[in-house]
């Protein structure tokens, strides 16, 4: 109960008071940590659980695979897969989909395909994980083939997540005509109204193709107000294909929407730098310092 409510300290206090912990007790605590962003704590509990020779349930394995997917920890994820095989556990929909998700997010798309092919039953979530995995790893053509196969299979109907995955794949690999067709297919064939993320994919798709005016038209006609993601996608296109005046206007718009976010300031600074306007670059950085805005440092999730 405490875990589901996000009260992790209370959940841990109760967990520590349990003298005889079953795999369900461990699983509930691990799932709560992973679900509420305490991934490292969840993984630490999982390692302790295994050191005590407690066999994890399917539900716990799903949570741990989700954690390894989040971390991109392919080695540990494969170890869990090995445990599943050696234990003779059934590759049901939930466990199979979690493996596909973990391998996809870790860049091992071939193994993700193998697991997907071995699954006796697949849901829309299974297809979504694989299509999204191909998209984020730059395999737009393969994502398109999977999407078409899913549509022709007939047993599974795409949802808004499916279309987000295929539009993202089209955007990253320049499949403009396919992206436009799929965007139209959403509402006409499946009655799914595009949300702001779908529109963001279309803005990026047109922008990367150098068709900035059409990207602007998408923003002008969409039924909701553009957010920072939409303006950022358009600004990214303008860095290559648009005018410098438009770049500055877009960066200013982002700063207006999210004044304490580094995104707009950094994009404006980059726009000035491209034009070699170094005094303006210095001014933007000065504003960031005065507002105590700092660029988030990069970090690596690779562990020894």
TrEMBL record:
Alphabetical UniProt keywords: Repeat
- Per the UniProt entry, the signal peptide is none
Task: Write out the ranges of the repeats annotated as PPR.
Answer: 22-56, 123-157, 195-225
Q: Which GO molecular function entries does the Swiss-Prot or TrEMBL record give?
A: RNA binding
Highest taxon, organism lineage: Eukaryota
What name does the UniProt record give this protein?
Answer: Putative Pentatricopeptide repeat-containing protein
Q: Which PANTHER family match?
A: PENTATRICOPEPTIDE REPEAT-CONTAINING PROTEIN
GO BP, one annotated term:
RNA modification
């Amino acid at each position: 109960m405490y875990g589901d409510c996000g009260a992790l300290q209370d959940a841990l206090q109760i967990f520590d008071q349990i003298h005889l912990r079953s795999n369900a007790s461990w699983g509930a605590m691990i799932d709560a940590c992973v679900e509420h962003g305490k991934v490292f704590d969840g993984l630490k509990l999982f390692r302790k659980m295994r050191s005590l020779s407690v066999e994890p349930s399917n539900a716990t394995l799903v949570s741990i695979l989700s954690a390894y997917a989040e971390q991109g920890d392919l080695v540990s994820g494969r170890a869990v897969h090995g445990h599943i095989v050696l234990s003779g556990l059934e590759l049901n929909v939930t466990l199979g989909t979690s493996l596909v998700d973990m391998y996809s997010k870790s860049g091992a798309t071939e193994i993700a395909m193998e697991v997907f092919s071995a699954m006796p039953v697949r849901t829309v979530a299974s297809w979504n994980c694989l299509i999204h995995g191909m998209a984020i790893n730059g395999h737009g053509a393969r994502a398109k083939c999977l999407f078409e196969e899913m549509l022709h299979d007939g047993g599974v109907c795409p949802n808004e997540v499916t279309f987000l995955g295929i539009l993202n794949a089209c955007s990253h690999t320049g499949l403009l005509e396919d992206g436009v067709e799929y965007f139209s297919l959403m509402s006409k064939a499946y009655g799914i109204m595009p949300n702001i993320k779908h529109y963001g994919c279309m803005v990026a798709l047109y922008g990367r193709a150098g068709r900035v005016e059409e990207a602007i038209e998408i923003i002008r006609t969409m039924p909701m107000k553009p957010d920072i993601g939409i303006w950022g996608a358009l600004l990214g296109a303008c860095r290559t294909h648009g005018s410098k005046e438009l770049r500055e206007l877009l960066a200013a718009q982002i700063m207006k929407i999210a004044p304490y976010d580094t995104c707009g300031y950094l994009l404006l600074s980059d726009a000035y730098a491209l034009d070699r306007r170094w005094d303006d670059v210095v001014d933007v950085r000065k504003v960031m310092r005065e507002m105590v805005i700092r660029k988030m440092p990069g970090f690596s999730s690779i562990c020894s």
